[in-house]
């Protein structure tokens, strides 16, 4: 801080000195110019002046001597002036020193107690500084001890770091070897995966364990009455491999359940006829169209059962209606006129309906007897349909399954699996799937449609 103040004072004084020097130089310049002008004017006046005694112009030598004498006088005056200024300054300094000496002589009687107090304060400060110095020395010694301990610990940590680096190098080498092994295994796994995908696309198995539990079979859906079976036969021998009966009164999925992620594979619940034990096996088709036909056959069987149940219910209802009793499944209907309601009939003058028309036939077939009113009001009961009055032998000749032949016997709709490669070089399939359904003649299709359209129970 003192250095800053000193530098600021020095700069300020330097600026003042520079300004004063500039003023002095300017004044000296002005004085020199005035002196030169004075000398020039004086010389001009002397050269133009006349001597009053002789009346002649003053000679040049006289003028020169006069100028020299004037210059000497000015020089002597300047010297005397500077001398006076110097002496005045010296006198000022002497007076100042005398004044200071007088003040010193007047201040020689100073309170000694004040000096002692100042001395005591200085001694106290010295003691405080000594204590602070001692504490700083102790702190420095403690810091030296701490630094020594830290240095030892640092050396120990460096040794441990070197050991860990060596261990890390070994671990990195092992990791590199494992990575190389992992990359090799990954490449092998990728090759195996691609090979597996190709084999799956070619429908082949490689695992001998799977081949031991694999069987090429032909499938057939057999119906007899309301019963239905899915039978699997060996391709080579034709013997029955397994049989899956469709359980009545339960959902179809309890016997045949499709796979979630594929439409060509199913799970069958096969049952042993002798022991009654059952097992679940996987069952699949090579072609999606064959799987669709298999599912459609099962769906037709379900629709057949549904239509049979509806036909039986309708037959019971019509039988109850003929006997004058209200059927259990038919609610009592009230067709009586409400209070305030009227019925208006508009009869046309046309003749009877044309022969052969559907309305005319129905009008002829309707009974002419009046309907007996029920307890809840007047009700009209229609005659049963012609199918209800058919002979009982028709019920025994109806088709119970979706794939029955016209002779109403159990005919197997076989879907055979091709085990040999085709002419284009396809490999042998490894999954158990069935070929498409057997071709049917138009007569068979029409007979099946007619039988499924019957509502006879």
From TrEMBL:
Gene Ontology terms: cellular component: clathrin vesicle coat
UniProt biased composition (Basic and acidic residues): 413-443
Listed SUPFAM superfamilies: PH domain-like
Source organism phylogeny: Eukaryota, Viridiplantae, Chlorophyta, core chlorophytes, Trebouxiophyceae
Coiled coil regions in record: 147-181
Protein name as catalogued: DUF1681-domain-containing protein
Bias kind Polar residues: ranges: 399-410
InterPro entries for the chain: CCDC113/CCDC96_CC, NECAP_PHear, PH-like_dom_sf
UniProt keyword list: Coiled coil
GO process annotations (BP): endocytosis
UniProt feature, compositional bias: Acidic residues: 446-457
Compositional bias ranges of the Low complexity kind: 1-20, 385-398
Keyword Signal: no
Annotated ranges, domain CCDC113/CCDC96 coiled-coil: 72-215
Domain NECAP PHear: 218-347
Species: Coccomyxa subellipsoidea (strain C-169) (Green microalga)
Region described as Disordered: 1-23, 385-457
